[in-house]
Amino acid sequence: MGFLKIDEIHHTYFTKTSATTALSNISLEVKEGEFVSFLGPSGCGKTTLLSIIAGLLKPTEGKVTLEGQPIEKLDNQIGYMLQQDYLFPWKTIEENILLGLKLNNQLTAEKKSYTYKLLEQMGLGGVEKQYPSQLSGGMRQRVALVRTLATEPKLLMLDEPFSALDYQTKLRLEDLVSDTLKSFGKTAILVTHDIGEAIAMSDRIYLFSPKPGQIYKIIHVPDELRSLPPFQARNHELYSEIFQTIWKEVEQVETEQ
């Protein structure tokens, strides 16, 4: 049995005058500790699927289970990292990173200590009393990751978390996030438009086609790349080969729209 199982998901958005099918016949499994990416053009239902997996949206048909349990019956098992850091500007970094624990009534001395260690591991020791406005965009995203990991979720959702950052910061954060998730054995799903990012960070890539969103192709990233940090993976000879292959597939998807 897969750690995360998505079984025959269909989803249609209804209005008074129309029905739009966003997803059709989506089935896949993710093993514990895997990093998979959902790649595809706008309108292919990637974020809708992410919301269904997180239990934020009930699908029209199908089900999602995590460790054999229906996703809607699980509490605090899923963490989100988004394009915007969504830190509260009037709260200190310390208050921001402890917020999830506080809301979940998990704010013990042990959890607090664990969260401070995470902050230090992210290279942010000593910023606890500062406010988000005093930090760079990359630093704020690292704070957001600490806040997400503090509650020790079993599954992480990464919804284009680096797209608002400059390129150098993005590359550094790819390495940091990848290394952090591997060291904690976390399972993660990345939604992205960036082919290079998907190749560099993933074990497996699901390419989606739109109208309605369906799995068009599954790309397995070779072990030679999976064993490398994202920055090094980008410089491997296999990287450009896979990039070209996926680029052609994406063009095919867009042609068939």
UniProtKB/TrEMBL annotation:
Per the record, a Pfam family? ABC_tran
Entry's InterPro entries?
Answer: AAA+_ATPase, ABC_transporter-like_ATP-bd, ABC_transporter-like_CS, ABC_transporter_ATP-bind, P-loop_NTPase
* All residue ranges annotated as the ABC transporter domain in the record: 4-235
State whether keyword tRNA-binding applies.
no
GO MF, one annotated term? ATP hydrolysis activity
Q: Which SUPFAM superfamilies match?
A: P-loop containing nucleoside triphosphate hydrolases
What stretches pass through the bilayer? Answer: none
Q: Which UniProt keywords apply?
A: ATP-binding, Nucleotide-binding, Transport
What the entry lists under CDD domains is as follows: ABC_NrtD_SsuB_transporters (cd03293)
Q: What is this protein called?
A: ABC transporter ATP-binding protein
